[in-house]
Design goal:
By secondary structure, this protein is of the alpha/beta class. It has 11 helices and 14 strands. The strands form 3 sheets. Strands 7, 8, 9, 10, 11, 12 and 13 form a 7-stranded mixed sheet that branches. Strands 4-3-5-14-6 form a 5-stranded mixed sheet, sandwiched between helices. Strands 1-2 form a two-stranded antiparallel ribbon. The two termini are 43 Å apart.
Length: 295
């Protein structure tokens, strides 16, 4: 498979039309069609379903689209790294993270680096632990910020200075908004919008299983989420109460929402991680040195 042909395939998947994709690629339609047919022949799979007015991807085409996006991203990242070798004070650093206020520590380091090395660019990717570790393992990210619990056996890591506090985001007109803290009895039978950290996969290590005890399997989970923004919208709509970390949802005076800590207190630590034996670009190496000095 040629990178050029994968880019052609992605253009067709994006446009939903061979004609429109050919126009954006500055190719003739017959040329693009032939390239796609050769790709299908090479892989031995039908990748595109042709309709009267548009095309769509087959299940095999959907698989190739995901892989092709990863391949192109890796190629572009590799090219950028080699270009940066010519100038040790330039380059790109790729960081993935779950939502956390502790990003402020990295923001301070990034600001310090860019003050001295303005040609270093930082690219942030938001996602849950599975999203971030998948991209780390594939080399698409240099660093990840992971909320515990997480298996760190494959990574080198540095602990962050602070822990995040779990609590409940709710409407300010909720009866529970008058409480200073939220107990287990307060949450019984309420519709909850649960973080993925509360899933069976993570609940034992994260402390949720101990906190909820026998009530864990009886919880009324109305919805789940991995990033809080959309969950907060559901809270505003009156769908339920979101179990989340502090300082992520907008709970300012102007907001309809407020945050109350769980009691007894439940906290999660965080780590900055990177692959063991990782070969860093000059920019990423500088960032790591700053991390070690300041964290």
């Amino acid at each position: 498979m040629e990178i050029r042909v994968l880019k052609y395939f992605l253009a067709v998947a994006r446009e939903g039309s061979i004609t429109r994709a050919a126009n954006t690629l500055h190719l003739t339609q017959p040329t693009l069609t032939r390239q796609l047919q050769d790709l299908e022949k090479e892989l031995g799979q039908k990748l595109i379903k042709r309709g009267k007015y548009q095309v769509s991807l087959t299940p095999e085409g959907i698989i190739l689209r995901k892989r092709a996006e990863e391949i192109i991203e890796m190629v572009e990242k590799t090219e950028a790294e080699f270009h940066s070798i010519k100038n040790a004070i330039a380059g790109d650093v790729y960081i993935g993270s779950g939502e956390t206020e502790s990003m402020k520590y990295l923001a301070e380091i990034i600001k310090e680096i860019q003050t001295t090395y303005p040609e270093i660019k930082f690219h942030l990717y938001s996602g849950n632990a599975e999203d971030v570790t998948e991209k780390l393992d594939k080399g698409l990210l240099d660093f990840g910020i992971l909320i515990q619990p997480i298996d760190l056996s494959k990574y080198d890591h540095l602990p962050m200075p602070e822990k995040d506090i779990w609590g409940v985001v709710m409407r300010k007109d909720s009866p529970l908004a008058y409480n200073n803290v939220i107990t287990l009895d307060d949450l019984k039978d309420l519709p909850l919008i649960a973080s993925r950290q509360m899933s069976p996969k993570y609940s034992q290590q994260s402390g949720f299983l101990d906190w909820f005890g026998e009530e864990f399997d009886k919880l009324n989970i109305a919805a789940t989420y991995n990033l809080i923004y959309n969950a907060a919208i559901m809270v505003k709509a009156g769908i339920g109460y979101a179990i989340t970390l502090d300082k992520l949802a907008n709970t300012s005076n102007e907001s309809e929402l407020c945050f109350r800590e769980l009691y007894p207190k439940l906290e999660s630590g965080l780590d900055v991680v990177w692959k063991k034996n990782q070969v860093f670009s000059p920019a990423a190496k500088l960032f790591l040195e700053k991390l070690k000095n300041q964290l």
